[in-house]
Amino acid sequence: MSDLKNDLILRAARGEKTKRTPVWLMRQAGRILPEYRAVRASLSGFKELVETPERAAEVTIQPVDILGVDAAIIFSDILVVPEAMGLIYQMVEKKGPLFEKTIRTHKDLEQVKVCDPEELSYVYEAIKITNNELNGRVPLIGFAGAPFTIFCYMVEGSGSKTFSNARKLIYANPELAHQLMQMITDSTIAYLKGQINAGAHLIQIFDSWASVLGQELYRDFSLPYMKKITDALFGLAPITLFAKGANFSIKDLASLQCNTVGLDWNVPVSFAREQCLGKTLQGNLDPAVLYSSGRDIVYHTKKMMAAFVGHPHIANLGHGVYPDMRPEAVKTFINTVKEYRHE
Ligand code: CP3
User: What is the mean pLDDT of the chain?
Assistant: First the structure.
């Protein structure tokens, strides 16, 4: 790690004081960049891009060159894990992911296995190529979906506003639900170890659908598996946990062996600071701010930065950038963070 020229994000994750706050964006590699769309258009689609390490590395590095972020995030998707477990997905244009099969019965469970982490070697290869090409300019973030969020897709088979089939399975057949969660967890641990071995400097776990569970069910059903992952990875790389829309979970997440807790824009920063003592916080500007004028983006970004004064912080939006955002607006956000100095 000593060969990194910019290790701000790693030092902030460890709670060290840094000369300025590091910044990156969720979904920074993607459709907001014409350069990304050009690469994607030259291939058969999203999945080919994910599975072709040289091209995945290329689009991973684009936001570092074009936007000037302090970290790269490997171009992939959380859905590669359920696929390696045996459920093939398609990424349907303008609609999102679609699985051919779902897991709703014990019989269905026979269709999946704990994945062989070698099946995801194309991701490790992309990580190695990216680090070679980055040559230490910035750290590389690896990631996976949280077991509950992956469970949602495996049971539901697609996106959903409520994931009611996933929640139904938890109540109707808790034993089966826990069996599937354990298989996802074991797969995820092996996969994340593979990413760290390949050179990922920091790991983020996305619990994107945490909000469909209440606090009690989150504690019973998602948190224990998050704990298994953080316990297994502790000491190997700094870990960020991000449970979108689940303010009620941040204190529980902060009690795990993680370094950083990600915040969406609905969480009052003062509340998060109290709930997450001793942990770095990441976030949390409302992405929609980037639709406002340049002056307003600067104003809201500075206000967000000021709210974190005295607390270890990694600047980000409260969720991923939206596809129709102007790269110029994104750059205004990034530059405002980079120029910001507390006091
Ligand atoms: O830049 C980065 O953040 C790295 C790449 C990345 C992608 N997906 C690429 C992608 C990351 C970190 C993800 C994570 C992911 N994927 C999550 C968790 C983060 C979150 O947003 O809450 C989730 C829930 C998914 C599942 C997924 N992938 C959905 C629901 C969709 C369709 C909707 C959408 O946002 O487009 C995807 C597709 C996807 N993953 C795209 C990209 C760049 C768009 C595909 C395209 O190029 O058209």
Answer: 97
Q: Give the CB-side neighbour count of residue 301, counting CA atoms within 13 A.
A: 29
**What are the tens digits of pLDDT across the range 184-203?**
999 999 999 999 999 999 99
Domain assignment of residue 144, yes or no: yes
The verdict on residue 195 lying in a domain is yes
DSSP bridge pairs for 73: 141
CATH number at residue 149: 3.20.20.210
DSSP string, 114-159: ---GGGGHHHHHHHHHHHHHHTTSS-EEEEEE-HHHHHHHHHHSB-
Q: What percent of the chain has pLDDT over 90?
A: 97
Question: Taking 50 as the threshold, does the pLDDT of residue 1 lie above it?
Answer: no
**Within a domain: 1:** no
Average pLDDT value for residue range 108-121: 97
Confidence label for 216 from pLDDT (cuts 50, 70 and 90): very high
**Number of residues that make up the chain:** 343
58-108 pLDDT, tens digit per residue, is: 999 999 999 999 999 999 999 999 999 999 999 998 899 999 999 999 999
Q: Are 290 and 329 in contact (CB under 8 A)?
A: yes
- What crossing angle do the helices spanning 53-67 and 327-339 adopt, rounded to 10°? 60
Pocket probe for ligand 1: among 27, 188, 263, the residue whose CB has the most ligand atoms within 8 Å is: 27
Residues designated as active site: 27, 31, 40, 77, 153
From the alpha carbon of 40, which atom of ligand 1 is closest?
47
pLDDT for 263 beyond 80: yes
Task: Show the domain range for 333.
Answer: 8-339
Cβ of 159 below 6 Å from ligand 1: yes
* Helix H or strand E encompassing 99: strand 96-99
Is the CB of 97 inside a 6 Å radius of any atom of ligand 1?
A: yes
What's the domain count of the chain? 1
Question: In sequence order, what DSSP letters do the residues of 232-282 get, joined into one string?
Answer: HHTTTS-EEEEETT-GGGHHHHHTSS-SEEE--TTS-HHHHHHHTTTSEEE
* 176 lies in some domain: yes
Distance CA 135, CA 201 (A): 13
